[in-house]
């Protein structure tokens, strides 16, 4: 199974005419998760053809408005749609209180929908969703911030069909069982183990989402050998000092993180309105060979 990455908002700080505030969709067949929910995220999701009813979880990195302000509106829409299925929400400490304040003031309108909040503390943790496996790690920004890693489950190894048939396993459901890594009992009572007939399981497709942050070791761990690391690149490298003062990174620094993590591809996003995203990507390409500058609604 594949992961589709759809940037819904790629601007830093505020939406512009070309770029919405931070939001990023990670979609598999029949389900998706939303990383950050800046203003306008729900409209962008609809433009991208994503069904809100199939949204499994929202993962908020930090509570700066450009990453959060779209969430009350999105929750309200899910409430209006009459959603019964719980929504998983991860975010830094304080997000539950913040939503309760809004709910008490009558601003949320979530109806019957339960919002299951997982506040992230300390070293972060794991959240098991039906389709995805999510892990968080703390990043280094001006307020408590967590990056997320989203992966599909590992896939079973390849079945050596000829060897399985040779071992007496008949064609049909028993082969499927064996391929899934389980021992099977043949009609004559013999038990055939998968060892030697099924190769090692293959790693599920994975991505990591690291923003906002200065360059940090936790981002490398978060993105360790992922298929795609999405990392913020607020400024071009000439303004590295300004980037650090504001808790951000440059594209060149994001590329070093991706190279250290041995991420297969790097997606740059969270561009200041004063930078050209493609130029930020271009100056980083000598460090990592596969870099994409994210653009709103352009699927990767
Ligand atoms: Zn921020």
How would you portray this structure in words?
The chain has 300 residues and is an alpha/beta fold. It has two domains: 4-155 and 205-293, Ribonuclease Z/Hydroxyacylglutathione hydrolase-like (Metallo-beta-lactamase, Chain A); 157-201, no CATH class. It has helices at 41-47, 65-68, 71-80, 95-104, 161-166, 173-179, 217-222, 240-245, 251-261, 277-284, and strands at residues 4-9, 23-28, 31-37, 55-59, 87-92, 115-120, 126-128, 133-138, 146-151, 184-185, 191-192, 206-210, 228-232, 266-269, 291-293. A seven-stranded mixed β-sheet has the order 7-8-9-12-13-14-15. Strands 1-2-3-4-5-6 form a six-stranded mixed β-sheet. Helix 1 links the parallel strand 3 (31-37) and strand 4 (55-59). It is globular. The model has no long low-confidence stretch (mean pLDDT 95). Zinc ion binds at residues 62, 64, 141, 212.
Protein traits:
single chain; 300 residues; Metallo-beta-lactamase, Chain A; seven-stranded mixed beta sheet; binds zinc ion
- CATH superfamily grouping of the largest domain: Ribonuclease Z/Hydroxyacylglutathione hydrolase-like
Structural class designation: alpha/beta
Ligand catalogue? zinc ion
Number of strands: 15
Distance between the termini: 15 Å
Strand portion: 15-25%
Helical content band: 25-40%
Runs in which pLDDT lies below 50 for 5 or more consecutive residues are none
Return the CATH topology of the largest domain: Metallo-beta-lactamase, Chain A
